[in-house]
Amino acid sequence: MPAGQIEKVKLGRTGLAVSKLCFGASILGDMPETFGYAVDTDRALATLKAIFASPANFIDTARIYGHGRSEERIGRAIREFGLPEGFVVASKIDRDFETGRFDGPRARRSLEESFEALGLDHIPLMHLHDPEHALDVKDITKPGGALGELFKMKEEGLVSAVGLAAGRVDLMMPLLRDWDFDAIVTHNRFMLPNRNAEPMIDFCVGKGIAVLNAAPYAGGVLAKGAGAYRKYAYQDASEEMLSPIRRIEEICDRYAVPTGAAALQFSMRDKRVTSTVVGVSRPERIATTLEWANWPIPDAAWDELLALPFATGDPEATREYTPG
Length: 324
Known about the structure:
By secondary structure, this protein is an alpha/beta fold. The protein has one domain: TIM Barrel (Alpha-Beta Barrel), CATH 3.20.20.100. Helix content is about 40%, strand content about 15%. It is built from 13 helices and 12 strands. About 50% of the residues are buried.
């Protein structure tokens, strides 16, 4: 594939065509408690302009990111720059920011808030987001709950496809067995140092559910380096947590391969993954990400990288979650 180009593929069983690279917009909503730094409006808009001008046609956001700022900034970018033809916006219905309530009426209100913020009357892909953080999971699954409301949105033509975006695999699997989702988002759980989500990915592929794999950089450290960014899966990282990252860096250094390129391509080269979601917070990262996606990595480097041991436990098990 020519440098700077990104293949487009069908999103599971849907009629949507998406690039194998999706830009994540959580950090564009300004979430310093999660990512460790702030992103102001001008920087977010410049980044969104670069995304719209890129060969990727896919962006991922959520109602709760930045308590609405991510969607609001995307909506402003759409008004100012225009949404490219064929561009796929994916968002997520979320629990009430203040109360944690996540029943059917809250799900409907979340959709309305997304429409208002984005300036759209239809969203191609809408996920149910983070059920593990709801006040009561039963509000989501009961008759008239948030999940039933999400599927009604699809029936009504307000969204084209519905997905499940969450963290804990043990919570996602029962929902995936019981509901006919079009897609999932998993994050921090299928990457070079950790394969916690791999059994779930196999299940989804067998069921025809598209897999969107987010956070291939382990929350940023595989892109920025263990020496510069001492966080892992959105947590302050101990030396023990960074040790696997340093082993990956050593191999990449010997083959003159950016660690970020190896981390990104680990996900993008896997045929089970429909699209890889990469968060970006400044316009120049768009070009870097495209470069990494097409970086030539020798087979010998892959042999060594894939021979490294990897964890299978939940990498966020000890994370102190901060909403928004």
